């Protein structure tokens, strides 16, 4: 796992949180490889899923290109351009876990509140 990059608003899960979330996601997968898990901006979850089950079908969507080390399990993802995904990955996930950086959360909440008015 690479170190946290505070300039990207990255803060990794604690061991307890990562294990708990990974266990729940693996239960949802129920051993199925039909639908991979989309880990959006949660590299700690991705790492724990793969550590707990190396065959877990997971795809990491992350802005930080240091995660290219995960090979084909890594997809560059920019919250400013969410529509820019490879066509083969669109509509291919039934399990999606998203943990956007803090500043993005603030922006998303503001946009949702604005849209509701």
From TrEMBL:
**Where is it mostly found?**
cytoplasm
Record-level GO BP terms: methylation
| Record-linked InterPro entries | DNA_methylase_N6_adenine_CS, Efm5/EEF1AKMT1, Mlase_EEF1AKMT1/ZCCHC4
Assigned keywords, A-Z: Cytoplasm, Methyltransferase, Transferase
An annotated GO cellular component of this protein is:
cytoplasm
Q: Which Pfam families match?
A: N6-adenineMlase
Asked if the Swiss-Prot or TrEMBL record annotates the protein with the keyword Methyltransferase, the reply is yes
Q: Where in the cell is it found?
A: Cytoplasm
Gene Ontology molecular functions: nucleic acid binding; protein-lysine N-methyltransferase activity
Q: Keyword Cytoplasm on this protein?
A: yes
Q: PANTHER family in the record, alphabetically? A: EEF1A LYSINE METHYLTRANSFERASE 1
Q: What is this protein called?
A: Uncharacterized protein
Q: Which species? A: Arachis hypogaea
